[in-house]
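Thread: quick sanity check before group meeting

JM: Hey all, I'm pulling together slides for Thursday and realized we never actually wrote out the predicted structure for the chain we discussed last week. Dropping the sequence here so it's in one place. If anyone has concerns about the input, flag it before I start.
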Amino acid sequence: MHRLTFDTTKTVLYEEVTSYGLKVLIAPIENTEVTYGGVYVETGALRHEDKLDNTKNIQGTANYLSKVLQLTSLGDIKEKIESYGAKYDVKIDYSSTVYSFSTVSNYKECLDLVLSLCTNMTLNESSVDSKRAEILFELEKKASNQYELLKNEVLNNLYFSSPIKEDIIGSED
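JM (edit): ok, ran it. Output follows.
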């Protein structure tokens, strides 16, 4: 595991890349009991390829997968992590997704759960349908938010043919 030290913040970051290409990060915060951890995946909202085999890779796939993957054969990963008193979050940008947590104890258990989420993908029809409904609800909320409408308009005018003009969350398609 690689160790990076940030002297000004007195923080040490431990980093390891798995054989799957996932970047595992652990950062115990000095003089506190808090440990931050996560798994960095080099796939984000920006379409790297238009098609995977014969299937069209649509905008919003990373957002959708982050929600569907949460429901594993072990149960709801978010609920399991939070049962340890930890906070769980997913951050998606155009080029990456980070599944992260912060905790005051049981960081190894939380990390194992996040890794299992990223490596043991299971999909079933009910979880796919429920998460699709959740994303459609998010899209409806954004459609009534003036800030989001303005932001989308600016992106559409700045990036004529780039996928960056599209929202990370995706569309109804």
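AS: nice. The chain has a mean pLDDT of 81. DSSP finds five helices and ten strands in the chain.
JM: adding both to the slides.
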